[in-house]
Amino acid sequence: MKDRSRRLSAIAVLLVAGVLAGAQLGKIAPLVEWYRTEKGFSFVLSGWLTSAIGIFVALAALPAGWLIERVGARPTVLAGSAALSAGALAMALLGDPNAILGARLVEGLGYVVLVIALPAAMSAISPPAWRTTVLAIWSCFVPVGFAISDLAGGWLIPAYGPPAYLFIVGLAYPVISAIGIVLLARVSDVGGGQAAAFDGRLSTTLTLPVILVSICFGVWVVMTVSFFAFMPAYIASAGADMLASAGIIALTVPLGNFFAAAVTPGRSPRFIIWVGAVGLIGTVLLAYPTFAGTGPWPMTLSAIAVAVLGGVTGSMLYAVIPPLVSRGGSVPIAIGMVAQFGGIGTLFGPPLAGHVIENAGWGGFALFLSGTAVICLVILAPLLGRKA
Known about the structure:
The protein is mainly alpha-helical. The chain has helices at 2-26, 32-39, 43-71, 73-93, 97-125, 131-138, 141-160, 162-185, 202-205, 208-236, 246-250, 253-263, 269-292, 296-319, 321-324, 331-384. Helix 6 crosses helix 14.
């Protein structure tokens, strides 16, 4: 019983640490104009500052997964936390644009390690029955992190200024991660139910099911990041009549994550993927009422439903990873593959969505979201008929 409590405590704190890592990803958005006017950033440099973390994930997530498999999740959680913390705090204290960008790159190096090492560590210390549940909940770390940075920015920036906002958001991660690292050191890896020790061959891990889930995750990220990236602009636009802020809508995502966590234990990969597909079908049907509907209540409820269904789908795409990894494969490398495609989706999704909005309006954006959900369903189709 005591060992169970220790494991639950470590997992819970590491989940919070993951959310706060996600907040570092989203903290720049409220400050783009401030960086331009006060720090002398150009639009180009502001863009690099915003996307630097995403670039690291898009380029290096799979190699990072291989490194974590070789070195171990625990040491890399410590190293990644040190880099993320150093970069985050430096960003709050530095004034020179080049130094700020350098700090963001250090932060991004820690981030790309943590988005693989944290779920790998939680999977390693979880009993087999917990693993799909833990990874289902983990998948909310980016949208909830964005919501926290958005809500914190709305309160802290007007009251205390941008540097204080950056410092407080940056300090939150090392405080929580330090507690998580201490708790992680108190429990051992469980084993059992995991794939056998990695046999050194990527082909054992990067099987067709893992590749399809990874590609689907990248397309899903295009959809969900675009949804949250442009929701504030939509709410602020003339005619938008939402009854909830973008931050509040993002905070409903965990409802989908916890639903997924409740239905995944003991289920087959096919069942897990089918539940994710149901979430995608709901998105296909509700994206248009969100951005082209009439009336505040239908639009708001549709937006919340899209957010929650996105949480369900994202959870399933993460939760299905351990049972899909074949014997002799590597869960960290599989997570790295999924994260790599997610990073690519993060880089290319918002610019593509912005192009759609400029040329086809919000109705076109709704069709863009529905279309990406349909593409996800097509990618998953071979797995939906796969035997358990």
